[in-house]
Design a protein that fits this description.
The protein is of the alpha/beta class. It contains ten helices and seven strands. The chain has a single domain, classed as Rossmann fold (3-Layer(aba) Sandwich). The two termini are about 35 Å apart.
């Protein structure tokens, strides 16, 4: 599939997810649209103890809590890429305070609508949500102290361009901190080719070493892995793609799906 088709698949799926609550995402086997293939919440972490957490903005779509490691400070300007219903933006807002600024970027209209409605209820005047593509961020150079993202960059077809754009919008000396899905080893071809698995963050992921090389090639320094956690996909999901004997082979290989939180400085 070409990049435009992949983006269309992701947009359509997350439009569906935006219409559901976190509870509905957790109780449906794929997050949206009834039973299909991917349980999106298998990656998510618990935000209940995070300052600024707003349950209405949490759809259970993350794979980490990047704000825990992002070293956000009071008064900072923060950009959240793939901001969804606004979950990480509102946590970041609790840190930057009244003097800071938080911008959420998303290319899914239903997510933007949900995030803006949540923000209106909260009454924040220094949080805004804008429509845009991570491969071509519609924001000015050198604008942000910190860029965060949560389980989104794996959905971006051109990750080189994504990290180049992140560097462009960061202020000199600014940094990013992203939680994402990465691989160790090669996924079976049936998993890699499936569009549902792409929208569910798995087949769009790349190997951790390749991910780090992309970051390095874009000129970042002080690159740090803060957290690496193995994700176990339920057998009933994998069996949608693999025969029982193929699943046994898959489990024996040195193949893993991980959530990772990484930072790097411009």
């Amino acid at each position: 599939m070409n990049n435009d088709l992949l983006k269309s698949i992701v947009r359509e799926k997350y439009e569906q997810i935006a219409e559901q609550t976190k509870e509905q995402n957790e109780t449906s086997c794929c997050g949206a649209g009834g039973c299909c293939t991917v349980d999106y919440t298998v990656f998510s972490e618990n935000y209940n103890n995070e300052t600024g957490y707003n349950p209405d903005a949490d759809l259970g779509l993350g794979c980490g809590i990047p704000t825990q490691f992002a070293n956000i400070r009071q008064g900072d300007s923060v950009l959240d890429l793939g901001s969804g219903a606004g979950n990480d933006c509102f946590v970041a807002r609790s840190i930057v305070g009244d003097q800071g600024r938080v911008v959420g970027l998303d290319f899914t209209s239903a997510m933007l609508e949900k995030a803006r409605a949540n923000n209106q209820k909260l009454g924040f005047t220094n949080v805004q949500f804008v429509e845009g593509d991570i491969e071509n961020i519609p924001l000015e150079n050198d604008s942000f102290d910190v860029v965060i993202s949560n389980c989104v960059l794996n959905l971006v077809p051109d990750k080189e361009k994504a990290f180049a754009e992140i560097r462009r919008v960061l202020k000199p000396g600014g940094h990013f901190c992203v939680s994402d899905v990465v691989l160790k080893g090669e996924l079976p071809s049936k998993l890699k080719k499936d569009a549902e698995m792409y929208a569910g963050c798995v087949s769009g992921a790349i190997e951790l070493d390749s991910y780090l090389k992309i970051i390095e090639s874009n000129g970042y320094n002080e690159i740090m892995i803060h957290k690496l956690k193995e994700i176990e996909l339920p057998a009933e999901i994998l069996l949608k793609y693999l025969k029982p004997d193929e699943l046994q082979q898959f489990n024996k290989k040195e193949i893993g799906i991980f959530s990772v939180t990484i930072s790097g400085k411009k």
